[in-house]
Amino acid sequence: MWSLKVGYSALASSRIYWTRINSLSTDLVYFSVCAASPEEIPVIRVPRSTQNRIENVKQTRGRNNINTSKAGKLLIQSRNASLNQSAGYTHGKFDEPTLCSKGWKHKKSFGDYFTVNNIKSVAPFVFGSGQEEDIKKPVKTFHKLHISKELVETLERLNITHPTTVQLQTIPKVMRGHNILCAAETGSGKTLSYLLPIVHKLHVDNEIHEEGSPKIHAAVVVPSRELAEQVASVSRSLCAPLGMVTRTIGGGRGVGHIKGVFKQGVPDILVATPGALVKALRRRYLDLSHLSFLVVDEADTMFDPSFANMLEDILRHTEIASVPDETQGPVRKAQLLVVGATFPCGVGDVLNQQEHGGGAGGDAVLVFCNKASTVNWLGYSLEEMGVPHARLQGEMPAVVRAGIFHNFQKGTVNVLLCTDVASRGLDTSRVRLVVNYDFPESHTDYIHRAGRVGRAGGCEGGEVLSFVTHPWDVELVQKIELAARRRTTLPGMESEIREPRPVTVETEELR
Q1: What domains, with CATH codes, occur in the chain?
Q2: Where does residue 154 rank: exposed (0-12), middle (13-18), buried (19+ CB within 10 A)?
Q3: Between 96 and 35, whose confidence is greater?
C-alpha cells in the first residue's frame, strides 16, 4: 500500500512525495499529511470498503464517458464539442446518453445551444399542388390505379405487374390533374410513374392534331441526349399498342436535325434536351401553347445554373395550371411534373413564379408564438425595425386569415408571424426557416411546426430555430434531444392505428 505525504512550509513551496507502507495485509489505507515535520504527521485511516466504493464509481464513470463523436457527419452538434454525436454512432440499449440540455433548468444556465442536423438524403415524397392528401393503403396491381386495359396488358408483356411505392403515390395525383414534385431514389420507377398516366390521359382524351400544326401535347425535358433516348424507349413501348408516337430531339445534331424531326409530323410525346427545345421554340418549329403535360426529369440537374436559364425560357412558353380544374376542358393548361432524386435550391422560386404569375420570391420565414398577444407585440417590434411582415392568429376572422395566408403563399411578404393556427394543413413550400419564438407546449405542436419547413417544392437546407426561455420548456427539449440521440420517435407520438381484427363467427353474432 501507499501513503501520500504533503509537506507544508511558510517559507518554501509545497512538495509532494510518496512513501511505501510495508504491511500488505492491513485493511486500512494510511493517508498522511505533514503539518509541520515528519515526526508530527497525523494519520487518517480510510476503511477498505469506502475505498472500494470510490474505485467502483471511478470505473463506472469511465465506462459512461464514451466518445460519441467520430469522423464524419454530426447528428448532434453542441456548443460543448465533447457532447457532439456522430451520425454513425448508435447508443446501446441500456446506455444513458449525456444530454447537451442536461443542466438547462439551473437558474444560472443561459446561452447554451445545440443543433440536431439532418443526416438523411431527401426522403421519397410526392406532393400534389393545391392540397395535402393522406396516402391510401397501397394497391396491389395497376388495374386499381385506373390505368387503361391496353396499358396494363403492355406492362404485363414487359413483366411489370406490381406498381412501386413512388408509382402508387404519383399516378393517382397525375390522373386527378395535380402538378407534382416527386423525389425518389434511382431505380424506384419514376419514369413509369409519370409516363403511364400521361399516355393513359392522352389516349382517353383522344387528342386530335391539326394537319401541319406544330402544337404538341406532352413534353419531357431531360438533361442529356442519352437520357432522352432512354425515356423515349420506355415511352415508345407504352405508346406503340395505342398508335401513339414518341420522338426525341437532342443536342449535338444541329438545327437541321431538329427541323427534320417535326417535318415527320407532330409527335404525341416529345422527349428533348433543354438546349434543343429552346432552339425549336425560337425557330417556331413547335408550339407549347396547347401543352397538356410538361415533365422536368432529373430535376437536381435541370435546375443547375447551366440549365436553369433555358428551363425558365421553356416555362415561359407554357401555361401551367394552378389548380386541377384548369387542366380540364377545351381551353386547358398544362400539368407540371417535376421528378428527381433531390431538389436543389431554386426549384421552389422558379415554380412559384410559374404557378402564381410572379411574386416577391426569396426565402420565407414562419415565426411561431403561443399567444395572439405575443404575435401583435412582436409585430410592433418588427415595424419599428422596418421589417415587412404579416400576422396570422386565431382571433382574426377566417376570411381575413385566408387572405393573409394567400398573400404569404404568393410572395407578397416573406415573414409571417403566427400562432399554431398556421402549423397544420397549410401549404408552406416557400418556407426555409421556422422560428419558435415561444417554444411549443407539446410534442405534437413541435412536430407540426417543424413540418412547415423542408417540404416538397422547397429548397434543401431548411432549418428550425427554437428559443427556450422558461424552465418548464426544458423537459420537452430534453425529450426531443434524447429521441434524436437514440433515433426514436418522441414519447406519445407512436401511431395507434392498427389493422382491424378479422371478423369471426362469434363477433358477427354479437352485432
Answers
A1: 2-64 (no CATH), 125-356 (3.40.50.300), 364-460 (3.40.50.300)
A2: buried
A3: 96
